[in-house]
Design goal:
The structure is a homotetramer of 427-residue chains. With 427 residues, chain A is α/β, with parallel strands linked by helices. Chain A has 2 domains: 306 residues, 3-Layer(aba) Sandwich (Aminopeptidase), CATH 3.40.630.10; 112 residues, Alpha-Beta Plaits, CATH 3.30.70.360. The first copy, chain A, is 34% helix and 21% strand. Chain A contains 12 helices and 12 strands. Chain A has an 8-stranded mixed beta sheet, sandwiched between helices. The mean pLDDT of chain A is 95. Chains in contact: A-B, A-C, A-D, B-C, B-D, C-D. At the A-D interface, helix 8, strand 8 and strand 9 of A face helix 8, strand 8 and strand 9 of D.
Chain lengths: 427, 427, 427, 427
Amino acid sequence: MDRAIFEAMINTRRQLHRRPEEGWTEFETTYYIVSRLKTLGYEKILAGASCINKEAVLGRSAELVAREKERAVQAGVPRAFIDACEDYTGALAVLETGRPGPVTALRFDIDCVLVEETDDPEHAPNKGGFASERKGLMHACGHDGHTAVGLAVARWIIEHKDELSGTIKLIFQPAEEGVRGAAAIAASGLLDDVDYIFGSHCGGKAKPGEVALVRGGVLASTKLDIRFTGKASHAGNEPHKGRSALMAACAASLMLAGIPRHGGGASRIAVGKMIAGEGRNVTPVHALIQIEVRGETAEVNDYMVENVKHIVKGAAEAYQTQYEIEKTGEATTIIDHPEMQKLVREAAQALPEVKNIVELSNPSGSEDFTALLKRVTDKGGQGALFRWGCRHNGHHKSDFDLQDEQSMPIGFGVFCNLVKKINSAAC
Amino acid sequence: MDRAIFEAMINTRRQLHRRPEEGWTEFETTYYIVSRLKTLGYEKILAGASCINKEAVLGRSAELVAREKERAVQAGVPRAFIDACEDYTGALAVLETGRPGPVTALRFDIDCVLVEETDDPEHAPNKGGFASERKGLMHACGHDGHTAVGLAVARWIIEHKDELSGTIKLIFQPAEEGVRGAAAIAASGLLDDVDYIFGSHCGGKAKPGEVALVRGGVLASTKLDIRFTGKASHAGNEPHKGRSALMAACAASLMLAGIPRHGGGASRIAVGKMIAGEGRNVTPVHALIQIEVRGETAEVNDYMVENVKHIVKGAAEAYQTQYEIEKTGEATTIIDHPEMQKLVREAAQALPEVKNIVELSNPSGSEDFTALLKRVTDKGGQGALFRWGCRHNGHHKSDFDLQDEQSMPIGFGVFCNLVKKINSAAC
Amino acid sequence: MDRAIFEAMINTRRQLHRRPEEGWTEFETTYYIVSRLKTLGYEKILAGASCINKEAVLGRSAELVAREKERAVQAGVPRAFIDACEDYTGALAVLETGRPGPVTALRFDIDCVLVEETDDPEHAPNKGGFASERKGLMHACGHDGHTAVGLAVARWIIEHKDELSGTIKLIFQPAEEGVRGAAAIAASGLLDDVDYIFGSHCGGKAKPGEVALVRGGVLASTKLDIRFTGKASHAGNEPHKGRSALMAACAASLMLAGIPRHGGGASRIAVGKMIAGEGRNVTPVHALIQIEVRGETAEVNDYMVENVKHIVKGAAEAYQTQYEIEKTGEATTIIDHPEMQKLVREAAQALPEVKNIVELSNPSGSEDFTALLKRVTDKGGQGALFRWGCRHNGHHKSDFDLQDEQSMPIGFGVFCNLVKKINSAAC
Amino acid sequence: MDRAIFEAMINTRRQLHRRPEEGWTEFETTYYIVSRLKTLGYEKILAGASCINKEAVLGRSAELVAREKERAVQAGVPRAFIDACEDYTGALAVLETGRPGPVTALRFDIDCVLVEETDDPEHAPNKGGFASERKGLMHACGHDGHTAVGLAVARWIIEHKDELSGTIKLIFQPAEEGVRGAAAIAASGLLDDVDYIFGSHCGGKAKPGEVALVRGGVLASTKLDIRFTGKASHAGNEPHKGRSALMAACAASLMLAGIPRHGGGASRIAVGKMIAGEGRNVTPVHALIQIEVRGETAEVNDYMVENVKHIVKGAAEAYQTQYEIEKTGEATTIIDHPEMQKLVREAAQALPEVKNIVELSNPSGSEDFTALLKRVTDKGGQGALFRWGCRHNGHHKSDFDLQDEQSMPIGFGVFCNLVKKINSAAC
C-alpha cells in the first residue's frame, strides 16, 4: 500500500492506543475520527445522536457517560462538539460519487475494553511509548487498529473517488464490546438503502498472512443485567420481615445455569457477576447479576432468553422481591451470503501479502456486525464479515498487541479491493 | 376404678390394637365404637358423614378409602353401615340428661400410624397375642388406649347418668395423625353449643403416675401436598422441549428449607418426601413433595404457609410447570384457659394413682384437638388438654406400648372426675 | 429372501413380542434363542454367565432378577437352564467353518422396554393377536425384530456354512436398554479375536426401504444411580438432629443441571427420577436419583461424569449425608471405520428392496453396540452399525410397531451379504 | 450529677460525634481518650497493642487500617502515638487505690457504624453543628455517648479515689460493631484478676428514664467472611474450563439459608453480602459472602457454625473451587449473675432520674461484652450488662440520636454507684 497512507495509519493506531475509551464514551475517539474525515474532505458526516436511533441504544449508562464527558472535555474535546452529538458517540461518513451505482457500507468499531495494559517493557506499546494513558482501559481487542484501517480506507476512497460510482458509507461504530452499539445504528434506518456491507476483525484464529471468511459459528447472544429489589430487616431481630434480593439472585443463578441444553444446537449461559447486599446483618435489599446467553442459532438464543425471563420472574416471586431485566447487548448469528464470500475471497486473493484464505464456521464468540448485516439483509442487501490475521497473545489480555503492524495493510487492502470491485466507475 | 370397667377397657384396647386402621379408614374401629355405644344404651349416635362437615375434610384419599372399605367389609363390617356413613369414619354420641346444665364434650382419637410392629417376643402385644394383624399398620401412638378409655368413660357416664345434669358429647375422632380429622368435626357446628371440652393424650413427656397440663408449646402446623406437572421430552434428543417437574420440586425444596426464621417464635419446615419422574432419560412430568410447617404461634405458622405459597408458585414459574397445593392437615396452638387447667388439676389430684402434676409449655409436637378447642372457644366455651403418663419406648416406634395398662385408669379417672365436677346433678 | 426363513422370522418376532422381558431378565427369550440355535445345529453356544464377565455387569438388580427367575420358571423355562446360566441372560453362538478366514461377529439385542402396549384394536399386535401378555412391558423398540432377524441370519449361515470360511460369532445381547449389557460382553474377552463386527437397529430416522450408515452422532453416555443416606429425626421436635438425604439430592439435582456446557461439543444431563423420604414429619433418610449424562465425544461425556462426582460428593458433604454412585449403564460414541461403511453400503446396494442409502452423523441417542465396537477396535478389528428403515410411530411409544414386517428382510439381507463378502469360502 | 462533669460529658460526646471512626481504626478517638485520661491523672494507661492479644484479633483489615492511619495522622494524631500502639486501637486505664479491695472493670465501646448521617436540619447534630464530618460514617449506635460516659466516670473516680479501695479498670473497647473487639481484650489476660465487670448500652428497648437489666436474650453469634476461588475461562468459548466461584457462593448461600432449625432454641442465619465475578463473559474467579449466624444458646450457635463449615466445604467441592472461612466476629450469650443484677438494680434505684427498672430476656441482638463477661466468669469473677434508656429513632439509622442528652447521666450514675458500692474505702 501507499507508504504515506501506511505511515499515517500506523500513527493513527498508536495515537488511539494511547487514549482508549470504553463503549458509549468514545468522545476523544469520535472527535478524532470526525476531525480527520473533515480534513480528508468528507462533507456528509453524521456524529453521535445523528447516526443512531436513541430508542434502540443498549448498554449505555447515563451516569458513566456524564462523568466521561467531563473527562473528554478536560482532555481537549470541545464541549460544543459533544453537545451537538447529544452525548452520543460514533460517526457515519457518506460519500456520494455522483455516479449511479450501488451503496456500499464498511463498518469499523472503535471502543476499548476494561483491561489494564501490561507494564512489561518488551510489550510494543511500552517500547514504542504509546501504551494506554488511561489505567484500567486498553485497546486489547484491536479496535484501535480497526479505526486506523477505517480512516486509511476513508483516505483511499476520497483519493480515488473519481474512479468510483455509487455511494460509500463508512461506519465508525461505538460500543462493539458487549455487542451494544450496532443495534442503535441498525435501527437508525441509515443503512436501509445499503446494497453491500462489510466488516472485519483482526486476529482471532486467523494467522498472520491469512484472511478468514466468517461463514458461520458466530453465536447469537443477549446480554442482560438483572436486578432484584427486596426489603431490609435486621437479620437478628426480625429476619421474617426481610425479603432477600441476594437469595433471589442466588436461586436465579443456580436455576439459570440449569436451563436445559437445546437439542438444536450449542447454547451458553454465564452468570458473570453478582453484587448483592448492604451489610452482614441486614437482609439484602439490592442484588445485581450480569449475565449473557448465547445460541448457535437465533432460535437457540431466543430459547435461552425466554427461559431466563421465566426463571427471574419465578425467583422474584419465590422470594417476594421486585425485579427488572435490562437488555444491555445483543447480537445475532452471521448470515452467509455465498456471493459475498466469493467477493471477499477475490479481494483477498488480489493482495500479495495474503498467503492463505480459510473459512470459519465453528461456534466461537459473538460480534454485533451481525445486527447490521441482518438489517441490510432484511432490506434486500448482502454482506460479509472477514478476519485479517495477525500475531497476538490473545484478545482481551493485558499483553494483546497487533504485533505485526504489517497485518493492517491486509485489512486495508481487502476493503479497498471490495470497493474497487463493487463501486468501480468503469463498471 | 371399677374392676369390670377396667377389664373391659383393657380388652377393648387389645382388640383395637389387633386391628389398627389409618386415618379416614377406621371402618372396623368406628363400627366397633358405635356397636358398643348402642349396647351401652346411647340413643343419639352420629357416625361418619353425619358428624363432620364434608367440605372441610383434610387429607383424605378417596382411592385409599375405596380400597379400605372393601377390606373392612371383608373383615365383617356391614356394607350398609359404611354406606350409611357415606364412607366416612368417626362417631359422636350425645347424652342428654334431661336436667338443665352445661354441655361438656370429651374427645378421643381412634386412628393408627404407618409403622410395622416389632416381632420382638418380649413386646407385650406379641406376648399377649394381640399384636397388629395388619402389616405396616400399628397403634404405635396409643390411640387404641384413647378409644378404650373413651368407651370406658361412656360406660361410666351412662351408669351414672341419673347423677348428672346437662349434656355430654363424646367425640371419637378419626384421622388425628397428620392433624387431619378435627377440622371437619369443628366445621360441623356440632360443638358450637359446647361449654367445656377436654381432650387427652397418653405418654409423651408425662411419666407414669403423672398428669401433665398442656398450657402451651403445642405448635400450630399445616401439612401440604405439593404437586408439579411438567412436560415430557427425550432428555437426550430434545431436552429443551421438556419442562421438569422434578427440578421445580428440587428448587422449591431448597427454597422452602430457606424460609427465614421468624423473630416472633419458633418455626419449622420439613420436606419429608419426594416422588418425581418417570424414567431416567425422560424429562420428569410429575413430582410430589409432602411437607409440613409449624409455628410457635398461629401467626408464625401462617407466615410459613404464606412463604410456601410464594415459593411454590415461583418454582413453577421458573421451570414453566403447573402446580397444585393441597392442604392435608392443620392444627393450631393450644388456647390456655387457666380456669380449665385448674379443673383438670383438681380432677387429677382427686385420683390416688396420680403421684405428680406438671405443666407443659415448651415447643413440641402438634395436636389437632387444638382445632376443636379453638372452635369451642370462638363460640364462647372453654377447655383443656392433658396428658396421662405411661411407660413407653417412644411414640411412632415399632416397640411402642402402653407398657403399664395401669396407666389408663388415670386418663379414665380425670375424664370422669371432670364430668362429675361440671355436670353433677347435685350442683 | 427364502420364503420359509421369512415366515419363520415373522413367527419368531411375534412370539417374542408376546413375551417381552426387560434387561437382565430375558430368561424366556434366552431359552428360546438357545433352543432354536441348538435345533439349527449350532454346537458351541455360550449362555448367561458364560458369555459375559460378571464383574463388568451394569444395571442389574439381583432382587428383580430373583423375582423374574421365578416368573420365567412358572412360564416354562427349566430351572436347571437358568441355574446353569447362573441367573444371567444372553447368548453367544460360535460357528467355526473349519476353513481359515476372518472372525466376524454380528450383534442382536433382545430386551424390551417398560412401556404398556396400547389397546387400540387397530394396532397390529392387537389385530394379529400377538400383543404383549405382560402388562407394563413391551417390545416397543423393535428388539423382538432384531432377535428374529438374528435367528434368521443364524439359520442362513448354518445352511450356507459349506460356502463360508473363518469363524462367525452371533451375539444375542441382553439389556441394551439403558446401555447396560454390552460392557459385560466386551469385558468377557470373547470378542478379542474378532476381525469384523456389525450391529443394526431398525427404524429411527431411517425410512422404509432405506439403509442408514451410522457414521457419527451416537452420543457417549453414562447412566448413574445416586443414593444419599441421611439420619432420621422428628422434624417438629428435633430438626437439628436430622440429616436430610432428600435435601442433599435436591441440591445435587440443581447443581447437576448446571454443569457448564462444554465448548468441545454437545453434552446432556438428565435427572430423570427421584424417590426420597419416609414420611412427612421425619427427616428423610433415603434418597435415590437416577441420572444420565451424554457427550458428543467420549471426552465430553467423561467431563460430565467427572462433574457429577464432584457435585454428589459436595452435596453429601454439605448435608452431612453418606452417598453412593452406581454406574448402571455406559455407551461410547461410534467409531467410524470408512472401509466398513463401504462394505455395509455394498451389502445394502445388493438388495433389491433397498431404495436408498443415507449417512447419519447428527447428535441423537446412545447405543451400547459402541462398547463392543470399541473393544473390537482396541484389539485391532473393525466394524460398523447400520439402521434398516421401517414404518413406525416412534420408539418407546405404546403404539410402536414394525408396521411393515417386510422391512425385516432388509436387516436380514445386509447381515447375510456382509457374511458372504467377508467369509466367502471362495475368497 | 455535677454540672461541670455533665457539661464536659456532653462536649466530649459532641466532639466524638463529629469524628466517627469504624472498628479498629479509632485512632483519633483512642488518642482523644488517652490524652483525656492522662490529663485526669491516670498513670497506668495501656493503648492499642498493649491492651489486646494480637493473635486473637477478629475482623481487622490491615489494608483499611493502613489507609485510616494516614487519615488520622492528617487529622492531627501524632504518628508516634499510632506507631506506639502498633496500629491498634482501644485503651485500658488502671487505677490502683493502694487500699486492698476488689478489682472492678467497666467497659465502654468507642467505634461507629457505616451509616451516612441525615442532612435533616431538625436532626440535633445538624442543629447543634456537631454532625459527622466523615461521609458514610456516623455514631448511629450511641458509642460516642458511651465513650463520653466512660470519660466522665473516669473523672468521677479519680476525683473520689481517696474514698475508694481496690482496683478499677476502665476499658475503652474498639470494634464492638460486628462483635469484633472484645475477643482480643479477653485474650489479653488483663481482665483475669477482675472480680466484677459491668457494661452498658444506651437505648434499645429501654425507654427514657428506664434502666434495663439484661438477664438473657443476647444471642450468641459468629460472623464469617467466606471466599471461594475458582478458575477463569471465556464463558462463550470454553465454559467447561471455568470453575465458577460465583456459583459455589450461590449454592452455598441457598444451602446456608436452609440449615435446619434447632429444636433447642432460636437460631439465625444471614447471608448479608455477596461480591462475585469479574466480567459478564468470564467464569467468575472470586466470590465473597459475608454471613453471620446466631443462637439462643452457645450450643445452638455452634451447631450453626458447624453446619456452615460443612456447607461451604461441600459447595467448594461441588464446583471444584477453593475456599476460605475467616471468622471476623464472635459473641456469646449473656451469663446471668443474679447477685450482680441485684447490685445494678440498687445502683439504679438510687438515682432520682430513674423512673423504672425492667428486665430483658427475649431473644434480640448480640453484644460482645459477653466475651469479656465470659472470660471474667471463667476466671471466677462476676458481672452484668445494663441498658440506660433514651429517646431515639432506631439504632443504625441515619437519624439516630441520643435525643435527650439528659439520659447520659443515668448511665454515668449507675456506673458510679456500682463503684461506690463495690469499691468503697469505707467498706
